[in-house]
Amino acid sequence: MFTVRWADDSIELIDQRLLPFERCTLKCKTVEELACAIEGMAVRGAPAIGVAAAFSMALAAREDEPRKALACARERLLRTRPTAINLAWGVQRVENAVRNVPDEEVAVRALAEAQRLLEEDIARNRALGHHGSALLEDGDTVLTHCNAGALATGGYGTALGVIRAAIEAGKRIKVVADETRPRLQGARLTMFELMEDGIPARLIPDGASGLLMRRGMVQKVVVGADRIAANGDVANKVGTYMVALAAQDNGIPFYVAAPTSTIDPETASAEDIVIEERDENEVLAVLGTPIAPPGARAYNYAFDITPARLITAIITEQGVFPPGEVLRSLND
Ligand code: MRU
Question: For the whole model, what pTM was predicted?
Answer without folding.
Answer: 0.97
